[in-house]
Amino acid sequence: MPLTSPSVALPSFAGGVPQFDGADRGVPSRRTMVTWQLPPTGQDTLSLSAFQTKNTPPLAVPPQQSPLPKAPDPATYRSAIAALPGAESMPPEIYHALIELGQIQNPPWADTYLRSIGVDVLFKNGMEALNLITSKGIRVDFGDMGNSKAHAQWLKDENLIMINQRYQGDTSKATLYAISEAIYHEAGHASRNGDNQASIQEEINCLGMNTLGYLYHVMTDADYAANTSNSRLIQDGVALYAKLFFDPDPNKLALIGRVIEKYGYLPAHTPDHPIPVLPGKVPLTYLVLEQLQNRRAKEWIG
Fold first, then answer.
1. pLDDT tens-digit profile of 117-166?
2. Structural domain contains residue 75
3. How many separate domains does the chain show?
4. Separation between Cα atoms, residue 24 and residue 22, nearest integer Å
5. Which residues contact 131 (CB under 8 A, 6 or more apart)?
6. What angle in degrees, to the nearest 10, is found between the helix axes of 108-116 and 200-220?
7. How far, in Å, CA of 205 to CA of 198, rounded?
């Protein structure tokens, strides 16, 4: 089912929007095939085809008519950062990224659009995320992730948001912005119960957070908008998802393929992150599930 994106100018990507088909990635073998358990809908059987003629309406408020809220003065929250666990040895990159996190204001037009396609936006702004981090006494630090391609990770058992140490030592403004956006994402995982039960819906929610953080920085810093860095954190992370969420393709096939590639092995949802109810609309997670079921059915048959 098509999803309509608002018109918004984003930094260009060489080669256009990447294509992801999920082939041979995160697709269980026949022996481990998953039967998806979808939330109650008031029907005995949920038929996605019933929604095919319904469409997400275009965004009513153009971006230029939706100004950004004012960011807080960093002086009002520096002491809270200084009181975090491990603050005495906190790397300067992390400290400055947390300062940048507190500045993030969700662009209203983007926030509205993401909610309209089924993203449960977990914070209204970076200060809400920073308040969560400080109230839960969460440590934020670099760590060794081995050969993992992950940029960052929430570790509940250690009450830690870990940033991949490959980004340590880079104090460029673009990287500090991107680390703050990654923290925005991981704070989403730490929100609510902050459990270790990941799901497709939770990942979509958290990807929405780093997308909103990225868009804020793009809108407030022309240099970042024009950034051509080869950093994986930017080009394969925060900037990529902004491009995918706001891809003009009404079917969002590249976004759905990317979600399947990275998170297709996860359950659809958890009690902590239920799939939003959108009257008359199909949440993005349902569309991901539909594609997954189609692919797994083909694998089972073939």
1. 999 999 999 999 999 999 999 999 999 999 888 899 999 999 999 999 99
2. yes
3. 1
4. 6
5. 80
6. 160
7. 11
